[in-house]
Amino acid sequence: MSQTVKPHLESHMMPVFARADVAFERGEGAWLIATDGERYLDFTSGVAVNALGHAHPHLVAALQAQAAKLWHVSNLFTIPEGERLAARLCEASFADVAFFCNSGAEAMEAAIKLARKFQAVNGRPERYRLITFEGAFHGRTLATLAAGGQQKYLEGFGPRVDGFDQVPLGDLDAVKKAIGPHTAGILIEPWQGEGGVRAAEPMFFRALRQLCDDHKLVLVFDEVQTGMGRTGTLFAYEKTGVEPDIMALAKALGGGFPMGACLATAAAAAGMTPGTHGSTFGGNLLAVATANAVLDVMLAPGFFERVQRISVLLKQKLASIVDRYPDVVSDVRGDGLLIGLKAVVPAGDLVGALRQEKLLTVGAGENVVRLLPPLVVTEAEIDDAVSRLDRACAKLSRAPLRREAV
């Protein structure tokens, strides 16, 4: 397709994001400062990425120190700080090995490949399909879109990638019926963040683990959003009572620096030999320096106990908001600092009203507004955020005309 006359565009950014008309120039902890000087309380955290807030001094120092020495050498050579990061993640989890990449979608692609390769090297190459769950979101590559199965994201991109069988979340009978001769494993999020902050009961996860053991399947957890402390423990699987065989991480792993990882047991990764997978930028020196700094902070004594205390405080205060404004919000859901407010008004209206109050939040499925403050948020900032939420709800509650929630 040729084009001789270029159209006049207000922005040369591809219009795939519905961006709010606000830009930020710096941040401090849980606060963002806009280009016009206005201060916003950030309960979005870059969509669960900035787990330690903005400009955390330990992360800044680690990144600056590494940037002054060496940025990138490729994975053709040993990267000692990457070896250290892999060892620390494995020591703190079920895993034996780690693969580093740049994003959650890449981590999920690696997890899907591991699940299929595991079956192939164990003499079952016909097993390539993964059972997934309705409402899931696993990324925006062609394969991860197919794994998520949401038609609104698949539309217009041709035939969906084969290999995924979706069932309702929490429906054990449906999972059992979906297991067939081509099933390689089961893929699930401990909490569905994008899907509306939903989770199955712990007994469901235990049943999935047993099914995988009985049928020689792999259990894959997508912890891209829940991992690295978001639910009050380093990994959300710790609260399910089971361990996966493979787990995808990203978002908060780099504290704001692009970083993803796929963790696995030695058995699950047995087929991943030189040449079976790779990444040019994955696990480069800047990324692993920052991720190691994130672990320094998160693994310090008392860090997660504090997150859990703050979570209880926030939930209690949000419950009072639900009681006061039942025509605006109806429920509080979530774990740790992955909190969802089930809206009665359209969720976009509530997100917009909160932004007017200089509180940043993000929508999710099922007409839910997510609150994702940095894990270092203070009690005073929790109080401030709830006051802003109260004012926003009061305005929406008084609104004479309101569209029906979608």
Summarize the helices and strands and which ones pair or pack.
Elements (H helix, E strand, L loop, with lengths): L23 E5 L2 E4 L4 E4 L2 H4 L8 H11 L12 H12 L5 E5 L2 H18 L7 E5 L8 H7 L2 H4 L9 E4 L4 H7 L4 E6 L13 H14 L2 E5 L23 E4 L10 E5 L20 H14 L4 H22 L4 E7 L2 E6 L3 H10 L2 E2 L1 E3 L3 E4 L7 H20 L8
Parallel strand pairs: 3-13, 5-6, 5-7, 7-8, 8-9
Antiparallel strand pairs: 1-2, 2-3, 4-10, 9-10, 11-12, 12-15, 14-15
Helices, by number, come to 12
H/E topology pattern: EEEHHHEHEHHEHEHEEEHHEEHEEEH
Provide the gyration radius in Å.
Answer: 22 Å
Which structural class do the helices and strands define? Answer: alpha/beta
Q: Give the CATH H-level superfamily of the largest domain.
A: Type I PLP-dependent aspartate aminotransferase-like (Major domain)
Strand tally is 15
Classify the beta-strand content into a percent band: 15-25%
Helix residue percentage: 25-40%
Could you characterize the architecture of this molecule?
The protein is an alpha/beta fold. The strands form three sheets. It has a seven-stranded mixed sheet, with helices on both faces. Strands 1-2-3-13 form a four-stranded mixed sheet. It is globular and about 65 Å long.
